[in-house]
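Subject: two folds for Thursday's group meeting

Dear M.,

Sorry for the delay on this. The cluster queue was jammed most of the week, so I only got both jobs back this morning. I'm pasting them in the order they finished. Each block is the input sequence followed by the predicted structure tokens. Could you check whether the formatting survives your parser before we put anything on slides? The first protein is the one we discussed after the seminar.
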Amino acid sequence: MTAIHLIEGPVGAGKSTFASRLARELGGVHVPLDQWFVHLFSPDRPATDFMVWYHERKRRLLDLIWTHAVALRPSGTTPVLELGLVRRSDRDEIYDRADEAGVEMVVHVLDAPRDVRRERVRRRNSERGATFFMVVPDSIFELASDAWEPPDDSEIRERRIHLVSSEMTAG
């Protein structure tokens, strides 16, 4: 059976560009949580209490995407998941699911300097190209960047993690 590839990193690191390219190379399918989230939930976004609303829906969507990814594998299709798991504990939940299901998980972690990422996000907001799913204002960029927990040495040792340099994520 094919492995499931997980693409993670802070906002603007080049995850969508990398994931799309990897899916093409592997003959797989790129499943970006943001695209699904925007399509399914944005029309219902509340004016207040956004974070509570967001986290509840993200959890449900993660469950659905994981089920979908596991279902793709018997067909020989390689799932390339871009899930926005910014905290180690969030990634640990996916690792546990993979372990319980006996699924090989290959993790690609991307990063780039904050100023480079900020400029990429601003450009994506204005150009609205292939990797655009929603406007990310500077305030949300900063909040998301501050929330990012890169893998530590133990996570890298315990999991099959490939660190991808910023030169490989230029998009």
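Second protein, same layout:
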Amino acid sequence: MKSFMAASHRAERLVKFYPKIWRQRYGAEFVDFMEQAITDAPHDAKRTTNIISRSVKVRLGELGIAGPTLDTSNASRTALSTSTVLATVFTVFALFYWSSAMVSWNSNPRIATSISVSIWTGAITVSTMILALTLFLIGLSLIFHAVTRTFSKHEKKFVWPLVIVFVSATAILNSIHQFTRFTIARGGIQWTQLGIALKQVAGATQWVTQSTIWGPSWTGENSFSQGVLHIGTPIAVAASAFGVAKLIRLSEFSMTANRAGRWATKLLTLGMILFLVSFAGWEVAGGFSGSWMAPFTQMEKSLFFVIAFVALLGLMTSFKVRSHHNSIEVISSNDAAA
């Protein structure tokens, strides 16, 4: 017990609040300083709170969200990896809202949809496509790069992230197949008629995305296999996002790739902001007015504020894609001794 509560051990536990790169640079100095501080004042809640709050700030900086990034040469990779995870979560919800708007569009043959609602529906479609295509291209380019480096350069660091990405992608494709085989699959998509085909794709997307978002809460009334499907799909989506983010972190970016990463980060942020503006315009213009579709529930409206917060984090991340100097804020002696 004495060993566990010794000043050296307590200092080593406190330093673990900080990310690895911070510990490599400042860990030894921090531990030495904290050993003395703990010896002088064994119990100091303010000191511990101060350390935790500052470590959170450093970790947010390492995610490219707030504060400086320690490894300034990897600032674009940091921002891109974080933006990829944020945009993936945002896009799942965006696809659900888009599909609901698209299915409701001109659903009532007795009442024509207003021009303003049609325009905003088109804007929602464009912003959603920007997000989905950008994420797809990011994932595809990173996977291609990682596979090439793994086989040509025998770089084993990419193996596990690639396994996670491929397994999760397989699970997602299987979920899409399972969720849609009893809907549009009965007659197939009528690709020769663009309007009808778009509605059918929207209908399938609505079912897949709402099953992904609210699926785990439905499993109580389903069989074991369906329960695994509903729970596994959101896990697979999250795993694929973090897998691609890890590939970004592990990759070595050239100057061209750094520029492309910065533009991709900005494009993801632009897509999220455009979607929020378009959806707000669609709501103000009438949205479900005259439609045969039921309007959004209170829960679905509330979740819109959640993705608005995600977009805000993405916007903050895009502003951090730049070099930082004097990026570390070491705990001062006055703060530690307080």
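Two things I noticed about the second structure. Residues 79-319 form one domain. The mean pLDDT is 83.

Cheers,
T.
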